[in-house]
Design goal:
mainly alpha; 4 helices; 5% strand
């Protein structure tokens, strides 16, 4: 049973590490694109959108670092630690921050385009901006996981004392 978990954790680790490296490359290219666009097209709207995009992307990189740290503890065979509780809380808070950035981005787009669509009937049918809710859901889910890991850590520590 432990081997299956380790194989899954190793595969997950390889995926997260690969995605992390690709994301760093994309982030660097995005920074270059933002600088170039800001110089070429000095427009406050473009700069605002690019800065919001970069902020969200940077937060995603931090979340991925925290995920890598959690996976490392799984591979070591000791995932129920206070560090992982802390990592899950950070992931939750940062996911909520991305949700807020997405909301700001949506409002800024609505002001620019004079149209705000969160849920409604559009030209192509029903339109739902799921991004507004997705990161909020993930943030709340990560905060719940933090509490579960905290409880598991406390139970683990109590078991150590009773043996």
């Amino acid at each position: 049973m432990k081997k299956a978990g380790c194989q899954t954790a190793r595969a997950l680790s390889a995926f997260v590490n690969t995605f992390f490296l690709i994301s760093i490359g994309v982030f660097v290219l995005s920074v270059i694109a933002v600088i170039y666009s800001s110089v070429t097209y000095p427009n406050w709207e473009n700069i605002l959108f690019f800065l919001l995009f970069l902020a969200a992307f940077f937060i995603v990189l931090i979340i991925m670092i925290k995920l890598r740290q959690i996976i490392r503890t799984i591979l070591e065979g000791d995932p129920f630690t206070l560090e992982n509780v802390h990592h899950f809380r950070i992931i939750g808070i940062l996911s909520l921050a991305i949700g807020a950035i997405n909301f700001i981005f949506t409002l800024a787009s609505a002001i620019r385009d004079r149209e705000l669509v969160i849920f409604g009937l559009g030209v192509g049918g029903i339109t739902l901006n799921i991004g507004l809710f997705l990161f909020i859901f993930f943030g709340l889910f990560a905060l719940v996981l933090a509490e579960i890991f905290k409880l598991s850590y406390e139970i683990k520590e109590e078991n150590k004392l009773t043996i």
